[in-house]
Amino acid sequence: MENTNKLKEILKQFPLKKGKEIKNNSKLFEIINIYGSLVTERVKSKILDHFPNANLESLNSESDLNDINNMIIKEYDNETSKLFNNEKVDETNSKFNNFGIGIDIENLDYLSNEIFEISNYKLRESLFTNTEFLYSLSRPNPLQTLTGIYSAKESVKKVLNFKINKYNEIEINHLQSRKPFVKIKNEIYENLIISISHVENFVLSICFSFPKT
To answer: How much of the chain exceeds pLDDT 90, in percent?
Structure first.
């Protein structure tokens, strides 16, 4: 009961849908206004601030408070997790030579300017590398830039069939011409081509994958 009440207080920090009551069986997308994958990562970060040992890998828009509470109380085996993640990365590496395309659209409201607050450093570290964050601060609209970088990461994950789970293992870097390119675990992948566009309050990214020559 104590965990559930704390979760309700955490969710109240997000813009909720008008007149929507937070119940134990309420799914996240049903109560939080303008829901997207970025909001999921923000929710995870807020929960981990209060429950640092929680296993939130399966948290998504369909999760309700009962699901999240189970994730908090479930014992988490770090060694098993490391083995699982290593297997997924190895499987990803075997598929870098395929043709593919990933497309993603994000709303600037999904991230919000809270990302720049000192208190949100854990969220920043989980989503972005220092290079990406510093680059955004050098641009006229840092929030738009960071949202574009996040969107590009989502496009890369879609090309790779979501075989890389950690956003900070993917880095969207830029040439002096500001053309973006992809690094995965500090290795440049020239066969992954990224394009990022901004239209009003939205960001669109496309990632093309080509066989290595």
So the answer is: 31
